[in-house]
């Protein structure tokens, strides 16, 4: 009985101290929240958090790979076509200049 009354007195003493004067670390707050929720809720929350993290990482790597494959494929397929088009345009320009010189005289 003496122990429980001493514990009650300690709790009452803590209640008398203003909240601004209590210095509490984040770890102490998390431990305090742990006591608030039952084990099943904590386990479920941890499962959801880990599943969300692993799914997000998988999605990040998938999107990164998809962007890389799409970009490199577009460059490999489109770059030769673009180079060929500029060569054709340059050849057409040279033909026009040559014909203008021939017919101008």
Task: Give me some keywords for this one.
single chain; 105 residues; mainly alpha; 3 helices
Helical/strand content category: mainly alpha
Q: Please tally the helical runs, counting DSSP H or I stretches of 4 or more residues.
A: 3
Given the C-alpha coordinates, what overall shape results? rod-shaped
Please give the radius of gyration in angstroms: 37 Å
Percentage of residues in DSSP E strands? under 5%
Outline the biggest β-sheet: none
Uncertain regions spanning at least 5 consecutive residues: none
Distance between the termini: 123 Å
- In N-to-C order, the SSE pattern is HHH
Mean residue pLDDT: 85
Indicate the topology.
Blueprint: H1 2-16, H2 26-36, H3 39-104
Would you mind describing this structure in some detail?
- This protein has 105 residues and is mostly helical.
- The chain is 88% helix and 0% strand.
- It is built from 3 helices and no strands.
- It has helices at 2-16, 26-36, 39-104.
- The protein is rod-shaped.
Concise overview:
The chain is mainly alpha-helical. The protein is 88% helix and 0% strand.
């Amino acid at each position: 009985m003496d122990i429980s009354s001493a514990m009650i007195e300690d709790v009452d003493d803590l209640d008398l101290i203003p909240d601004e004067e209590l210095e509490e670390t984040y770890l102490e707050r998390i431990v305090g929240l742990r006591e608030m929720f039952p084990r099943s809720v904590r386990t479920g929350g941890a499962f959801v958090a880990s599943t969300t993290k692993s799914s997000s990482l998988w999605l990040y790597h998938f999107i990164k790979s998809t962007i890389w494959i799409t970009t490199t494929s577009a460059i490999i397929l489109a770059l030769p076509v673009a180079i060929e088009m500029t060569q054709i345009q340059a050849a057409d320009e040279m033909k026009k200049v040559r014909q203008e010189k021939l017919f101008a005289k």
